[in-house]
Design goal:
- The chain is an all-alpha fold.
- It is built from 2 helices and no strands.
- It has one domain.
- Pfam families: HIG_1_N (PF04588).
- This is HIG1 domain-containing protein.
- Keywords: Membrane, Transmembrane, Transmembrane helix.
């Protein structure tokens, strides 16, 4: 499973979403208006990364069901 390039792409996408989420939460926890703006930006990036991760997961499932 770890030799499958599509699975590795799914894994990387999920880890990227988790890292962006942690950055957003940690920035939000510091307080202040500048950190709130940064946290909001991180959370927007997380939504984009999460949408991309969902697409990659769906492509992975599609190709695995097709037998490829």
């Amino acid at each position: 499973m770890f030799t499958d390039p599509l699975f590795l792409l799914v894994l990387i996408a999920c880890i990227a979403v988790a890292v962006i989420l942690i950055l957003g939460i940690s920035t939000f926890g510091r307080g202040g208006s500048d950190n709130a703006k940064k946290s909001n930006k991180y959370m927007r990036w997380r939504i984009y990364a999460q949408a991309l991760a969902i697409v990659v997961i769906l492509v992975f499932v599609f190709f695995r069901r097709m037998g490829g």
